[in-house]
Design a protein that fits this description.
homodimer; Umud Fragment, subunit A; Pept_S26A_signal_pept_1 (chain B); Peptidase_S26 (chain B); membrane (chain B); LexA/Signal_pep-like_sf (chain B)
């Protein structure tokens, strides 16, 4: 009798604990989904703006309200690996004309960004795999906009403008 | 004194109500995100398997566990409009060779599905804008796998196999 009683109490407490975990897990998930998330970056493609092992805060509101603009640094799902994320700068939006030839090429080639897509490039042009290799990226793959650098502490604050001069000017 | 008291009680109840709404809203959001969602389809591109105004249930587990297979009907975000969803069948996975020429073309053309992408086609080949027009779609755009037709009631149940014979066989 005592054993059955204790079992029911342990079961009750366990279910109660699981219930709270699910509840607060869902609330935390929604906070990360709709407010923002912390991202630890790795790789050289955004130097000098973001270096490897920097921690940034990526806010979600701009993405949900479709307020991503040229010059923003975004976190997006990689088009080639659904489990990986990429961190690049938005160079062009849909309809923009992107110059895809190198600065030393004789013949200039251009490409238009299709509807619903964006053109992403890293700030470290020499060491970045981005839209110059894999083409425009669907807007729906963007997760959030990087708005604040959190780590290292001596670099805390807003992020710099693009050092590359590649952002498409307003079309004439 | 009375008004201040009543104001505090109304405020307390309102905040409590808002708290419950946020709490259960988050739990509902996570249920739709991780379990499945109901989708009302429109358009002729999946006839006869799914007709316009059918309601289907799209489960999320396969997408999160990367268990989407050839022949599955999936709901995905449209590559051209991040607010629209498309409902198509998976014809090929990454690495598959897709025949992109028509049945009446003399010269057969092929295309390989890149890593991290899928090739989607509607069952109604004559009236479907799909990968044949916009190319392979990144796997990360897939939202869920349609597993059950719910409406109309006389068509309730599992969905039919592809009527088109376009699904890529296991490569030799």
């Amino acid at each position: 009798m005592a054993g059955g009683d204790m079992f029911r109490r342990v079961l009750g407490k366990t279910l109660g604990f699981l219930g709270y975990t699910v509840q607060y897990g869902c609330i935390a998930h929604c906070a990360f989904e709709y407010i923002g998330e912390f991202v630890a970056c790795s790789g050289p493609s955004m130097e000098p703006t973001i270096t490897s092992h920097d921690v940034v805060f990526s806010e979600r509101l701009s993405r949900h309200l479709c307020r991503i603009e040229k010059g923003d640094i975004v976190i997006a799902k990689s088009p080639f690996d659904p489990h990986m994320n990429i961190c690049k700068r938005v160079i062009g939006l849909e309809g923009d004309k992107i110059c895809t030839s190198g600065p030393s090429d004789v013949f200039k080639t251009h490409q238009y960004v299709p509807k619903g897509h964006v053109w992403l490039e890293g700030d470290n042009l020499r060491n970045s795999t981005d839209s110059r290799s894999y083409g425009p990226v669907p807007y729906a793959l963007i997760r959030g906009r990087v708005c604040l650098k959190l780590w290292p502490p001596h670099n805390f604050g807003a992020l710099n403008q693009s050092p590359t001069g590649r952002i498409v000017k307003r079309s004439d």
